[in-house]
Amino acid sequence: MKDPRGRTIDSLRLSVTERCNLRCAYCLPAGPVSFASEEELLTAEEIEEAVRFLVERAGLRRVRITGGEPLLREDLLDLVGRLRPLNLQDLSLTTNGQLLVSRARALRDAGLDRVNVSLDSLDPERFRNVRRGGDVKKTVEGIHAALDAGLVPIKVNVVLLKGTNDGEIVEFARFGMKRGIEVRFLELMAIGEAASTHEGRFLSMDEALGRLRASFRVEELPRPDGSPSIPFAVSDGNGLGGTIGFIAPVSRPFCNACRRLRLSATGLLRGCLMNAGGVALAPILQNGAGDDRRRGLEEALRRAVDEKPWVSAMRTGVRMNTLGG
Ligand code: SAM
Fold it and tell me: Is any atom of ligand 1 closer than 6 Å to the C-beta of 118?
């Protein structure tokens, strides 16, 4: 479907839990965090129904499962199995990779196409500092397990943090090139913890590109339709080459090309990451029936799409794990 400004809407970020097994310093507070309870989350059956509706009514083609950490959801394989037959072009998942080693094969068998893995440092100690826990080795092993299982193409997401991982940009590019993986550098957004605690930590795409240009030949490639990532061909002149990407919502906003809706784990349908509100699908999915339910979902979809901003505010104190990153 098209939104009122003519943007095609065919992609969904689907959050399946608010819980996370890490506490990334830019994402969650260090202290105790309260998460929505299991009872407050949409069930796998409700999610399946909402996604089926969006496929049939809005022409949804792509779903990316996220959270919180989606691998913490116990019925994830069942959910993937329910979504697979829904005529999607692309069914992917974003994970921190800590639990991926043991789940990669089963996710592939359940019908998942591919994974994006978040990895903000290759250095064990820095990884633990940024992510407040976890083990970089597990995430790297998870990436290898995903490659072996055929969850490809894999993308590795690196949030650029000035003074923290900016010395690793070249190393990350090599890491991706050696494995045939696209590393994507993300500009830090003022969301959740980052909105209040990370002033001064922002590193722009242009600054990061400067670091890459000091070591590699770097050439911008055309951005594929609907992709938030700006791709670059990178090579070291000695036979090592590949593609890296930049997601630069701050220095190069892409709202005018955004094709996404978001469904939170608790069932709020939103047109933009920065919309703190959202339209509640749970009451419609849980109480309606037949034509009433269909009308309710139609109305909810229309409202979420109408509220999709042309230019996002790009700042919110609402945490990413509840918005569904
Ligand atoms: N737990 C999964 C993971 O770690 O990939 C999925 C959820 S996480 C919220 C999704 C992505 O959002 C991760 O790549 C994370 O680094 C990124 N992210 C979180 N807060 C961010 C921020 N303020 N700016 C940019 N990216 C952010």
Answer: yes
Choose one of 157, 184, 229, 322 to mutate for the ligand 1 pocket test, by most ligand atoms within 8 angstroms of C-beta. Answer: 157
CB atoms within 10 A of CB 89: 11
Quote the DSSP letter at residue 173: H
Ligand 1 binding pocket includes 27 (Cβ within 6 Å):
yes
| Pair type for strands 279-280 and 268-270 | antiparallel
Task: Say if ligand 1 is within 6 A of residue 97 CB.
Answer: no
Q: How far is the CA of 325 from the centre of ligand 1 (A)?
A: 6
The reply to whether CATH 3.20.20.70 applies to domain 11-323 is yes
pLDDT tens digits for range 102-133: 999 999 999 999 999 999 999 999 999 999 99
Atom index in ligand 1 nearest the CA of residue 27 equals 20
| H or E element, residue 82 | helix 76-83
**pTM of the prediction?**
0.96
Map out the domains of the chain as residue ranges: 11-323
